Amino acid sequence: MAEEEGQLHTLALLEHLRAQSGQLWGRSSELYSRVDELLRQLANPNLHDIANMSYRVELWDRHADHIRWTVAASGSIVLAHAAFDAAVAEWPHERFTLRQGIMLMREHPPTKNGV
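Now predict its structure.
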């Protein structure tokens, strides 16, 4: 009798596993559809092109080794300078750079050796 109970328990576990696998497949299929829709939206030519925002205001970690946060990105140098000034005014004790690509344009606090 114990052997039959063991077999029934094993069958119950297999049925449960099959049910869980079916739910997982449904969820992954739904997730695939959602990601696919988002990728199609990103392909929209009317989206704002962040790649053309070559001026970046960046907040650095306290050792100036890594960028912690890009505070602003702009395609306009005038707006980039304004964003830099606003960031420095808001957080005067932090380290900021204004860069175009790898070219350093401004930094706070200023140093003699650059970033």
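The CA atoms of residues 54 and 102 lie 10 Å apart.
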